[in-house]
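Tutorial handout. Part one gives the primary structure; part two gives the three-dimensional structure as tokens.
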Amino acid sequence: MRMISFPPKMKKTMKYRDCYKEGVKRLSECGIIEAELDARLLLEYICKTDRNTLLAHPEREVSEEEYRSYEEVISRRQKREPLQYITGEQEFMGLRFETGRETLIPRQDTECLVEEVMKNLHDGMEILDVCCGTGCILLSLLHYSNDCKGVGVDINGHAVKLAEKNAEALGIQADFKVSDLFEKVDGTYDIIVSNPPYIPSKVIDTLEPEVRTFEPMAALDGGEDGLTFYRLIVKEAKKYLKRGAVVFVEIGFDQGESVPALFEEEGYKNVKVIRDLAGLDRVVEAHFY
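Part two.
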């Protein structure tokens, strides 16, 4: 693949619009579909500007330091490093979350999971988030509810530290702990929510390079059939559920039959599948009585 580079030295003042065009050109050459969006977001990140700058102030001068920094982040994106790992943040449910390579990047698809939980969430409820990652699911639920309490667990200690940082930045009280699923969990809960690893092992190599190369494999690989973690969650969750509690899990688009079947086999009631905005099976809801 031919890589387009910025000139080695700035021979004259670079304009904001010209920097942007250079970025778009380089990312397009690498086959990045959203080259224009990514080039703009990275320029805004480096120059501390906003989306209006390109339209309202295209002649804004870019300093040599900004120019070189932009060249560096464009080079990283050319290598297919996700935008969110470069900028270190991602918006989710209208909130800003710090991201890092120790966790999956919060995705818009997962907002469907949060929205479904919120339909069943009442003041004062206790929530357990299994495989919490950045904490985006639990912290969003606590932010948009009243007097609820939440615990988030993840096997990755770095992820737990990141979730704690996000909680502090958002001013939300939550308890995060390192735990292999329910290993260190105490008490019972009104809601258990999880976005576990669910991609079949054989499918990993077919994913986009941003995912298979940069995102943590342990947070992606759901075992041979993609159901390893669901089997464990469905069975173990019952020990930590109050009567009348509900479990919500995110699923892959092709797991709308297999995952509900696991819940039904374990005696859960009113099991249903919810589709996302794209019309794909995305969430399983199961009640415990």
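Part three, for discussion. The chain has a mean pLDDT of 95. Residues 64-78 form the longest helix (15 residues).
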